[in-house]
Design goal:
The radius of gyration is 15 Å and the shape is elongated. α1 packs antiparallel against α2. It has 2 helices and 2 strands. By secondary structure, the protein is α+β, with helices and mostly antiparallel strands.
């Protein structure tokens, strides 16, 4: 799910449009996808975009073929049946796509 969320954000960010989507627009797309599809996504846990979306804004001057990188991290706690938790571990997904 995290990989697909990252992919959705990158895909929206590379599509040729004027103006190109901002970092906040891309983050909103990723977060929305994750909230709709992740079983354990809690309001207290947030997605972390680290490193920031690359290349930096504004992307209007970037030529065709410039690589857009969206990296998303999510702190995840395993819950064992005995009631003890394991973790947290950080799940990471990174998507690289070339701008149209």
């Amino acid at each position: 799910i995290l990989t697909n969320a990252s992919r959705e954000g990158a895909r929206a960010g590379i599509v040729m449009r004027t103006p190109r989507l901002s970092d906040n627009d891309i983050k909103a797309i990723v977060t929305s996808f994750a909230q709709e599809h992740m079983v354990s996504f809690r309001a207290s846990s947030t997605l972390v975009f680290d490193p920031p979306i690359s290349p930096a804004e504004p992307r209007a001057g970037n030529p065709f073929g410039t690589e857009l990188v969206v990296t998303v991290k999510y702190p995840f706690n395993f819950l064992l049946l005995s009631g003890f938790g394991l973790g947290p571990i950080t799940l990471t997904a990174e998507t690289r796509m070339k701008m149209e």
